[in-house]
Amino acid sequence: MISLVSQNTYNVVRLKHKALVYHLLFWLLAYLFWIYIFRNGTLVFTHALTIQFCYLIFIAGNYYYNSLFTVPLLLNRKKYAVFGLSFLAGILAGALLRVPVSYAVNAYLFHTSPLVFNPYRVFMDSFLNIFFWVVLILTAKLIAEKITSQRYIEQIEKERADNELNFLRAQFNPHFLFNSINSIYAHIDKSNKNARGMLLVFSEMLRYQLYECNVEQIGLEREINYIRNYIALQKSRVDERINIAFNTDGVTDNIRVAPLLFIAFIENAFKYVGFNEFADNSIDINLQVNEDILRFTVFNTKDSFISPAESSSGLGIANVKRRLELLYPDRHLLKIENSENDYFVELTLFEL
Question: Over the stretch 184-196, which tens digit does the pLDDT of each residue have?
Fold first, then answer.
């Protein structure tokens, strides 16, 4: 459990560091842009650097104040009056704070006479500049998020329509199928308990796919039960000398995930698991949940040689990758390691 926490902590920190780099790069470019545009003949270069840096602090502060607080908590909840007042209060506070900062910079850094310092003019210039740039940057961010969200919704709707069409094309009468399974079950000799049990397990798996998976999320325990049934069926066909293990930890009733999200990786493990007489051969599947983070791993040994046709096939894995991008954007990490003798998959889901 300690290794799980440390690994997940590392993944979260890595994502945060990546976002931090993007933000720092944006403000650096904005800083250089302001220096280039607003530097004039009355200011030496060092003065322009200092003045624009002071503006950068208050503009960035107001941007994050609105981006993290007023927009999600007020504007997105349609509290327009409160949002407007909060927005103006932030600009006003920034402009007021810049007055003593500007005085200190002029008096102690540029050694300008206090007599030429006009606090009212500094306040008005600060208010207008901070207001203009915060509105511009914040509006650009909101427009970009709106466009991204709209494209995402359109993509989801298109793929949902395509999936529904494909499902209708491939649909058969489930009642006929279950009646056929019952007929086959009745014709299997009662002494053949293994065959009868396998058919019942298959029937339960099929019922799960047909009737329970037509939702966006399903209880994790139901998904785990489906995985256990699949493993039980597969054990009957693989070499009995291959060790197969499936372990779960931290699973509770209230955890929900997208249905059939893990099965493609497990199918892949059973499909390619190899047998080597001089080594330990295994399929090791683990699913662990810690607070709102889920870590799923699959390890399997494999033959060193796989035909090109088999190695090039990966439609199931590709579909899962696409589903992860759509269902868990910026909330998942997928790592796949394919070596000569083994195959390893690690999927981490955040903010369950």
Answer: 766 677 777 777 7
Best CA proximity match to 275, nearest among 250, 303, 255: 303
Domains of the chain: 39-165 (no CATH), 241-349 (3.30.565.10)
Q: What is the pLDDT of residues 39-71, one digit of tens each?
A: 654 444 455 555 666 778 888 889 899 988 998
CB contact burial 87-112 (16+ within 10 A = b; e otherwise): beebbeebbeebbeebeebbeeeeee
Residue 239 half-sphere exposure, CB side, CA atoms within 13 Å? 16
Residue 192 sits at φ, ψ, to 5 deg, of -90, 75
Longest Cα pair distance anywhere in the chain, in angstroms? 106
Share above pLDDT 90 across residues of the chain, in percent, rounded to a whole number: 22
Whole-number Å distance between alpha carbons of 50 and 268: 59
Rounded to a whole number of angstroms, the distance between the first and last alpha carbons of the chain is 18
